[in-house]
Specification:
- This protein has 433 residues and is of the alpha/beta class.
- It has 13 helices and 10 strands.
- The chain has helices at residues 58-61, 78-86, 88-99, 119-136, 164-169, 174-177, 225-228, 246-270, 293-311, 317-321, 332-342, 371-394, 399-414; strands spanning 4-9, 25-26, 36-40, 107-113, 151-158, 188-195, 208-214, 271-282, 345-356, 420-430.
- Helix 4 links the parallel strand 4 and strand 5.
């Protein structure tokens, strides 16, 4: 039985994120390979109530639906899980390459950016630990008590509104996710929570070996300013739709370019020499325009559902006109071009695959067997990801009605075929100091 060494995360909304560490000894049973966890301050105290109500502040308002209830992200993240597991080969490759650089008696530092909450968060940790165990067992160095001298420090990062408490409460499940035959060879694992934006510095220089991020780089640091201040109007659209003016499309694209270049520059400073990043995010095929493809369609359905509530008098039209998603799904070519322009990383591997938005539908072919059921599954995925932003802008009363309308609209479109989401995964290596 190992004691838990807890780190208390202290978040200050007016100053850069920092940690105050309290080492607390608790005589609690912990998985054999897990030496640490984090007791975070309640998520409700980390949401930054200092911002004006209803004014969208990404760092405050952008987070998945909290808790573990019927409409929570923890319950409705099967799409993210499916795409995450599709990228295990890339994650395994990056970890194996890093093990060649990390000495057996040292500590590997891994950060999962946009970790969210629920079972998917622990899947990343367990897959890294399983890969290390399988690779490391052949040349493991043992201490006096027979355990590997190597250790792994995990940082689980997301915006302050993330349900970190749910993550911490679920750490005991980690034991069951690690293969039985590999637990004996697994190095010590320390886990800490780290609230903060990935578009800011969150680690010291050259301190991290591996960054992992799944489905968070499609979120922008903010809505483009000329859109949020009303200079340009994306009327009846919440993202890039078929009626979105070209100037608005350009604003979304430019915001992505700024954010992605900033992200690469910040992570470059934080990675050790030879460090890797495994990045996964929804995107577009190179030949697709921003208003086309499997990502734009699911948000266009939401735009139409909101328009329906405007027609019913449930939402003011000006409310819809002023709501824009801090979001952009880049094409594969756009990603390649920006990485090349940045010139800080070497692309070791990049590919695009497609995944059904309805992760419960594993049927062959393009035809949807049950459009109504499939539409409801997709609506749950979208609601779990967008609910806090909807509540902030439109209020909570419309939620159920909105997603009933969404399901109806989606079902009609699914009669034409499955809704497929293009997903980009890339392995990047820090190419220079």
């Amino acid at each position: 039985m190992f004691p838990i060494i807890s780190q208390l995360a202290c978040y200050s909304p007016t100053f850069p994120t920092r940690f105050c560490t309290q080492r607390l000894q608790h005589g609690l049973t912990l998985p054999a390979f897990v030496h640490g966890s984090v007791l975070g301050t309640p998520a409700s105290t980390l949401t930054g109530r200092y911002a004006p109500p209803h004014a969208l502040t990404v760092e405050r308002d952008l987070h998945m639906a909290t808790g573990a209830g019927e409409n929570s992200y923890a319950t409705n993240s099967s799409f993210q899980k499916k795409t995450l597991m599709e990228t295990w080969p890339e994650l395994q490759t990056a970890v194996k390459e890093l093990l060649k650089l990390v000495s057996p008696e040292s500590t590997m530092v891994v950060a999962d950016l946009g970790c969210s909450s629920g079972p998917n968060t622990l899947l990343v940790v367990s897959e890294v630990m399983n890969t290390i165990s399988r690779t490391h067992v052949c040349h493991v160095q043992e201490t006096v008590d027979g355990r590997s001298a190597m250790a792994v420090q995990f940082f689980l990062n997301d915006l302050p509104g993330n349900d970190f408490n749910l993550v911490f409460r679920s750490l005991d499940q980690l034991h069951s996710l690690v293969a039985v035959e590999e637990k004996a060879a697994a190095p010590a694992c320390y886990i800490a929570g780290l609230p903060g934006s990935m578009y800011t510095r969150i680690f010291p220089c050259q301190s991290v070996h591996l960054f992992h991020s799944s489905h968070c780089l499609i979120w922008r640091s903010k809505v483009p300013e000329l859109l949020s201040n009303g200079t340009h109007i994306n009327e009846d659209n919440i993202y890039i739709g078929k009626t979105t003016p070209p100037v608005v499309v350009k604003l979304f694209r430019e915001q992505f370019e700024k954010d992605f270049q900033l992200f690469l520059t910040l992570r470059y400073k934080e990675l050790v020499c030879g460090g890797r990043m495994v990045l996964t995010f929804a995107g577009r095929k190179s030949e697709e325009m921003p208003m086309d493809g499997g990502v734009a369609c699911v948000w266009e359905w939401l735009s139409k559902a909101l328009q329906y509530l405007v027609q019913k008098g449930r939402i003011e039209k000006k409310k819809l006109s002023s709501f824009n998603m801090p979001y952009y799904a880049p094409s594969l070519d756009e990603v390649k071009q920006l990485i090349k322009q940045n010139d800080l990383f070497k692309v070791e591997h990049i590919r695009l695959f497609e995944s059904n938005w309805d992760a419960h539908d594993d049927s062959e072919g393009d035809m949807v067997l049950n459009c109504s059921s499939s539409a409801k599954n997709i609506a749950k995925i979208i609601r779990a990801g967008i609910e806090p932003l909807i509540i902030n802008h439109f209020g909570e009363d419309i939620l159920d009605e909105l997603f009933v309308a969404y399901s109806s609209i989606a079902a009609k479109h699914l009669e034409k075929g499955k809704a497929m989401c293009p997903v980009i995964v890339v392995i990047l290596k820090k190419s220079k100091n």
